[in-house]
Amino acid sequence: MASRDLATFAAYVSARSSALQRAAYLMVGDIGLAQDLVQEALIKTYVAWPRLRDPGNAEAYTRKAITTTAITWYRRKAWRAERPSGQPPDVPAPGHADGIDERTWLWQCLLRLPVRQRVAIVLRYYEDLTEAQTAEAMDCAVGTVKSQVSAGLAKLRALVGAELLPPEPDEVVMR
Q1: Could you report the per-residue pLDDT of 108-153, keeping only the tens digit for each?
Q2: CA–CA separation, 131 vs 111, rounded Å?
Q3: Are 12 and 55 in contact (CB under 8 A)?
Q4: Are residues 58 and 98 in the same domain?
Q5: Looking at the domain assignment, is residue 174 inside a domain?
Q6: Contact 155/88 with Cβ under 8 angstroms?
Q7: CA 29, CA 108: separation in Å to the nearest integer?
Q8: Which of 60, 82, 104 is the last residue of a domain?
Q9: Which residue range(s) make up the domain with 133?
Q10: Comparing C-alpha atoms, which of 123, 137, 4, 144 is closest to residue 61?
């Protein structure tokens, strides 16, 4: 790798690492695993860097590496971390901590979803990717993204209620 390419890669890592770690954390639910996941994905990106025609596409490449690696790790049961169980906590008491409690509660509910559903929801709603971009990151068809998001949102609605989640696709009013 030429020094110019190395500098470009280093600038990319510096600029995007925090955002990539936040997304990875939402996918796996553990800060240490998220850091490992991003590190693994950045290693893959570094190896592929000379082959990337446009360094502007590096984030999409890295995001796909994060997603596929997370799913692979779960399938291989490489993670032996605690799994959320039981019911979500009761509705928080009124006060300053309501927002934090609500986000924590929603987060615990999100962790109860299967990994592919959780990844699809994080990429679509947290990362604000299109269905096509999400499908590319997950290395699957757009229809799979739609079904994973739909199934994940249905499970979340059952856990938290419809008022906290995005509307069903047929509930969206076209203007």
Answers
A1: 888 899 989 999 999 998 888 999 999 998 999 999 999 999 999 9
A2: 21
A3: yes
A4: no
A5: no
A6: no
A7: 9
A8: 82
A9: 85-165
A10: 137
- Contacts of residue 134, Cβ cutoff 8 Å, sequence gap at least 6: 120, 123, 124, 145, 149
Helices (H), the chain: 3-28, 31-48, 58-75, 98-111, 115-121, 131-138, 142-160
> Both 59 and 32 in a single domain?
yes
- As for how many domains the chain has, the answer is 2
Residue 149 to residues 22, 132, 135, 156, 163: CA-CA distances in angstroms? Answer: 19, 13, 11, 10, 17
For 21-57, the pLDDT digits (tens) are 999 998 888 898 899 999 999 999 998 888 887 777 8
94 with 56, same domain: the answer is: no
When the pLDDT of each residue in the chain is averaged and rounded to a whole number, the result is 80
The CATH number for 50's domain is 1.10.1740
Entry pTM: 0.56
Q: Of 41, 56, 82, which residue constitutes the final position of a domain?
A: 82
